[in-house]
Every structure is written in structure tokens, then in C-alpha cells.
Amino acid sequence: MTLSHDLFARARVRMPGGVNSPVRAFAAVGGEPVFFERAEGAHMFDVDGKRYIDYIGSWGPMICGHSHPKIIEAVQAAVAKGLSFGTPSPGEVTMAEKICELIPSLDQVRMVNSGTEAAMSALRVARAATGRERFIKFEGCYHGHADSFLVKAGSGAQTLGVPTSPGVPKGLAELTLNAKFNDLDSVEALFKQYPDEIACVAVEPIAGNMNCIPPEPGFLEGLRELCDRYGAALLFDEVMTGFRVHPQGAQGLYGITPDLTCFGKVIGAGMPVGAFGGKMEYMKLVAPSGPVYQAGTLSGNPVAMAAGLANLELIGEPGFYDRLGETTRQLAEGLQRVADEAGIPMATVAVGGMFGFFFTEQNRVVNFDQAAACDLERFKAFFTGMLAEGIYLAPSAFEAGFVSSAHSQSDVDETLAAAERVLGQISK
Ligand code: PLP
């Protein structure tokens, strides 16, 4: 028996499902989760001493690899001065200046403690700014676990919110409208149905919570145009894509200007951080400038700001995104090649430091229905085989993968050699 097994047995007694966030429990792939105690660069080490090449990167923040010396140093220096003051402190000012300088669509930004808080608060601002209560999101997109976002329309109820999670009030769920990702007609139909009632369209500009699905050409432009036409705000949830796919996030990569943007992950470098920001006409509404209440005991925490600023400095180095994109492309193309050689139908995708792979006969996957129709059993077998090989992929077919600047050519080669063996096994 392993130490991971013992820990999970104890965890299940005192923690729901033995974890503090559901996807960690391995429910979608079977088996028991691995408990980790140390991570460095592209590698993580479990409590039983096994080394893994990590493609989760703590779900996105670790774009420079784990335990980067410059980030650890910045955190240690900040810790030595105090953990939290509950007052304004210099790091928050530098962070706000830095984010607004990097992302031209932002006049102001408010720091929060998670992506969930960022999305929840940005939605509140959009509702307040427009005086409207309904909003549109996309099936398969995730914006954290605030009530309004935990809603997914069933096939027969495209326009009527059906709570995905018990505990979400029906009255609130009805205000959440679900459209199809990469399908502008489904968005326009909702605007036509509720022309004066939609506060915003919230979208992951590259969907990373139904595997990895980039926008089709014209999709984001079309959303911008529809929002302008119907007087709604365009809310980009860049919690995952922000500083991961381009120095200016997905909005920079595709050249679209949203009204409001959410961030998380990379801007915290592994500390609990989120942020939302936008044009002044929206941000002036946020308390104490305006009446939209939003607050946080630990928001703008000095240690978290130090970590995030060190990360933003590292990703600003010349050529950072070229190298990251190249490693990610090599990984995705390599996976495609070994799958093709094994005769296993697969579609792969890479954008910046994000990648995805689908066990499907289709050339590419563009929405949730298609992602859900992929061979999930085959994913499970692949995941399990790769884990045994020491390759740590997300334990769900509906998550994007993440590469860091610490992933070397030999990490990619090792991963592809393992994939070749595992795909060879599961093709039999
Ligand atoms: N938005 C997106 C696009 C995300 O991917 C996530 C988390 O994965 C969130 C929001 C929620 O962020 P958090 O888990 O920090 O609350």
C-alpha cells in the first residue's frame, strides 16, 4: 500500500470525497488520486517518491514551472515583511499598473482571491452597468462556481436555465442563458428573444474547460458585434487564457476588445489570486468609487502580489511566448503523430501554452456536444497508462493541458515515448 492510498483513506473521512476540489478525486478516470509533496520545474514528486512530468501546472498558474527560484525568492522576501496587512500596500499598486499596462482594454482592475470571485463580481458589474439581469454563457464553458454560472441548458431547454447543481435557486438559474460555443446563431437567437434584457455575454475566448477549443474565425468578432448591437457588455473570462496564450491574453491574440475581463491563475503564480477589470465606465461603478459592492479580507495580499509580479516579470522576457508556443506545438504534434502511427483517431490542438487532445474521428472539435461525444473510455485508458509512465495529465477529458517554460525537449521526448507505448497498448 502506498502513502497516497493511506492519505486518501484518511482524507475521505474528513473531507467531502477526500478532496478540496472535485476534479482532483479522479472520479472521471477511476482509481485513486496521487498525493504530491514537492514540485520543481516541469516535475512533481508524489509522497511515495515517484517523479512525474506535469502537464497540469496547478491548473494553469505555473507557466514558468514549479518553484521558480525568482518567484520563491520574491515570496520569501514578502513573507519576511508580514503575511497580510488588510490595508493598501505597494505591491497591489504595482500589480494594477502592470496588468493595465499589459492589457489595453483595462483602465482599472480589482484584485480578488480566485477566478470564481472575479467572474462573479464582473457579472455583478455588467448587470449594474446595464440595468439588465439576464446574461449569456456557453455550454461547456466554466467560470467558477458562483450560482449564476453553475447553469447548463438541457437539450430541450436551450433558452431556459436548468440548474446544473442542486442549491442554485431556480429563479437565479432562469437568468442564465446558454448558447453554443462557436455558434453565433445560437447567441443571436437569445438576443432576439430578450433584446433589452441581456447584461453581458460571458465567454472563455479559448474554451479550456471542455478540453481545449479555440474560437472559430469570426466567432469572437461576432460576439463583439452582437454585444454592441444589443447594448450588452462583452465579458472575457481570461482566468485560464490570460498571460497563457499571448502577452495580452486571448484578446491580444485575436485582436478583440472586451468590456470586462477576468484573470486568475498566472497573475498569482500559484497563490490564491484573481482579478477583474475593464473600461472606466464599468470600473467606476465598483465600491468605493461606485455602488456595486465588492470586497475581500485578503484581496491584494502582499505575498500573493509578490508572487504574481515575479511571474509577470518572467513572462515579459523576450521570446518567452515563442519558446512556450514551440514546446506546446511540439508536444501536440508529437501526440498526433504517435496516435496516427498507432491507428488511434485523435485530434490535437495547441494555442500558446495550452493544448488539448480528443479521441475522435473528427479533424477538430468546436463545441461541447462534440467534446462530450469523444471516446471517454479511451481517454481513461490513456490517462491511466500515462500516469503509470510518470506523465501527469489532467484527470478528465474536459480539461486543457498546460505546458511551462520549464518543460525541456527531453520532457517532451519522454512524454511522447510514453504515449507511444500507452497508445500501442490500448490500440490492441
Ligand atoms: N474561469 C475559468 C475560465 C477557469 O478555468 C476557472 C478555473 O479553472 C475559473 C474561472 C475559476 O477559478 P478558481 O478556480 O480560481 O475559482
Question: Mind sketching the topology for me?
Answer:
Elements: H1 3-14, E1 36-40, E2 43-46, E3 51-54, H2 69-79, H3 90-102, E4 108-112, H4 115-130, E5 134-138, H5 170-173, E6 176-179, H6 184-193, E7 198-203, H7 219-230, E8 233-237, H8 249-254, E9 260-263, E10 274-278, H9 280-283, H10 302-315, H11 320-342, E11 347-351, E12 354-358, H12 368-372, H13 376-388, E13 391-392, E14 401-402, H14 409-426
Parallel strand pairs: 3-13, 5-6, 5-7, 7-8, 8-9
Antiparallel strand pairs: 1-2, 2-3, 4-10, 9-10, 11-12, 12-14
Helix pairs in contact: 2-10, 3-10, 6-7, 11-14, 13-14
The structure holds pyridoxal-5'-phosphate.
Residues 59, 114-116, 119, 142-144, 204, 208-209, 237, 239-240, 264, 274 line the site of pyridoxal-5'-phosphate.
GO molecular function, one term: pyridoxal phosphate binding
InterPro entries: 4pyrrol_synth_GluAld_NH2Trfase, Aminotrans_3, Aminotrans_3_PPA_site, PyrdxlP-dep_Trfase, PyrdxlP-dep_Trfase_major, PyrdxlP-dep_Trfase_small
Pfam families: Aminotran_3
